[in-house]
Backbone:
């Protein structure tokens, strides 16, 4: 058991150093061991367009680290499988039905701003998040 509290991670688990694989493996292991205490949100680096941008991030890019460690073929397949897991991470969380949490790096089209009704409710945020991504499993997650 970790602590009495829960942990919410806000994203950007890769492209931030030379140990992306270790970071992701550690967080996934924590989530598997403590499914009701560890919560992971999707940041903008948990997308193929960003973590596959080897020209920009160089050796810090997630795809570069996967290929360097496991070779081009297996490295690419590993990168893709982990991105499939990232595709299923929620974009936002609500803590105690009061605190809205989201990573600040996921862009959205400006035209969506007109479609957001105020005040924001869990249903509104959920619908907006689904419109903002191609993932059909994006959801708001209440953390007790």
Residues:
């Amino acid at each position: 058991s970790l602590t009495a509290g829960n942990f919410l991670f806000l994203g950007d688990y890769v492209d931030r150093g030379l140990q992306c694989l270790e970071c992701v493996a550690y967080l996934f292991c924590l989530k598997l061991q403590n499914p009701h205490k560890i919560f992971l949100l999707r940041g903008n680096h948990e997308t193929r367009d960003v973590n596959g941008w080897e020209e920009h991030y160089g050796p810090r890019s997630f795809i570069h680290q996967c290929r360097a460690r496991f070779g081009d073929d297996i490295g690419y397949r590993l990168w893709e499988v982990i991105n499939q897991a990232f595709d299923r991470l929620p974009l936002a969380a609500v803590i105690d039905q009061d605190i809205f949490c989201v990573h600040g790096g996921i862009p959205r089209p400006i035209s969506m701003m007109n479609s957001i009704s105020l005040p924001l409710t869990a249903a509104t945020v959920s619908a907006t998040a689904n419109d903002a991504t191609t993932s059909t499993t994006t959801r708001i997650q209440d953390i007790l």
Observations:
- Helices lie at 20-33, 48-51, 54-57, 62-70, 72-87, 122-132.
